[in-house]
Write a structure and sequence with these properties.
Elements (H helix, E strand, L loop, with lengths): L2 H17 L8 H14 L2 E2 L4 E2 L3 E6 L1 H7 L3 H19 L8 E6 L9 E5 L19 H5 L1 E5 L15 E5 L5 E5 L4 E5 L6 E5 L7 E6 L2 E6 L6 E3 L2 E3 L1 E3 L5 E4 L2 E6 L2
Parallel strand pairs: 3-4, 9-10
Antiparallel strand pairs: 1-2, 3-5, 6-10, 7-8, 7-17, 9-11, 11-12, 12-15, 13-14, 13-16, 16-17
Length: 256
Amino acid sequence: MNFLARMERAIEEIVEGIFRKAREATHPVEIGRYLLREMEDEKRISVTRTYVPNHYKVRLHARDVEYLGPLARTVSRELAAHVMSRARRQGYSFVGRVDVEFVADEAAKPGDIRVEGSFVEDDDGGEPDDASRAGLSAEETSRTLISSRGGAGPSNRDLPTGPRLIVRLNGGVERVFPLGGDRVVVGRSSSCGIVLEDAGVSRRHAEIGREAGRFYVLDLGSTNGTYVNGRRVSRQILADGDHVNFGKVAACFKEA
């Protein structure tokens, strides 16, 4: 049994353990099987990828949903991981975050399981996080290509001083971007002022700007978040030397 198969087995055991004391009519491991069946039934083939649903609505009897109680979110995450694990093995892709929702269905009997899969894109139009990008290999999800609009970014030698963002590339190489204007958008889209072609970066991930003489970073509703010194932020005033992460892409803000 390979690693992914062992992972799937472990997830099934966790889910089954949570439901173990539930009524006999409830079939916990079957939920995972119904999810995988729905994923296969609803897959869509594009030009270069095969997409599968990323939002799953699981309809159960009201008492079965009530039994989940405070564990509903934990079970949901475990089942989502189960779906993503299988999707990776099959080379499938998602259009957004993978989530599983439990719904009480008046028409359901105890033990009934009905699953509805749908495609729900992230609001910001960005890609899901690394775990959700089941169609990409580990090498693809970790690769970061960086450029500034209109050409390659400046080198350290060209811009040694002044307000700047220093982005760390794979292998320890650094690329420096000047922050001379009032604001610049950082993201994966080619329309951004600083382009980070990384799987974990949203198309319009964050904005770096200057207001009343002070620089700030503003998250634009990204999927994987913007972090300053390890803390996820919505908007944060930047100080010289602050470490900024756009998803998993690391950078450093220098003011002088």
